[in-house]
Amino acid sequence: MGNxxxxxxxxxxxxxxxxxxxxxxxxxxxxxxxxxxxxSLANELMRRGWDVLGIDTDARLVQKWSxxxxxxxxxxxxxxxALKQLGVNEFTSAVVGIGTDIEASIxxxxxxLEAEVPNIWAKAISRQHGQILExxxxxxxxxxxxxxxxxxxxxxxGRMLDFIEFDDGYALVKTVAPDIVTGVPLxxxxxxxxxxxxxxGIKRAGEDFTHATADTVVEKSDVIIVIGKTPAVxxxxxxx
Length: 240
Description:
By secondary structure, the chain is of the alpha/beta class. The chain has helices at residues 2-23, 36-47, 59-65, 80-86, 102-114, 127-136, 144-157, 186-189, 191-195, 230-237, and strands at residues 28-32, 51-56, 71-74, 93-96, 119-123, 140-142, 160-165, 170-176, 197-203, 210-211, 223-229.
């Protein structure tokens, strides 16, 4: 599972880079499936100033979110004609938020691909589901339950306050500063050469986060942001 998620993140990053110029100028997105995932995503996009078309087969869900979204519609997007009538084929971004009905998720993703929507995000509820969506050609596959589970596992089993993993096995960790970096400038603590990590931010009680430099002196109980290879930041956080 870990290797699959890592490779998925790498492919996702490459596709996002390749398509950035296509999507950066378009502030419209169709969100298909207004369950917990889809509605949360749609509301956040609205908060960020995007125009959102929310679509679901459940009229009650569409009615619930109709006032919060730019547009909403009751439609079955497993029918390609429904997508055409709603003009989704003219959008540059679409999100398939359908999770529990895997067949519908696959059909909708396939229809979006046939409509040549250039930037398709699809939610998967399992590794197998994600692999199918990837093979279909979905540009981005999201496994929210698995990725959140992986993140929380790091928080539960370690001394991290937060954990975010990026492509190629890199991670960013928020943790309380261990004694080995306190009392001296970061440049003298040799954190990078000894532990293979870089301290990039620091927060002192009652103050905001600030960038860390070689001259920054970390004090006991400071919260720091550390970045590096995942095993290295995991080991460093355990020193706290």
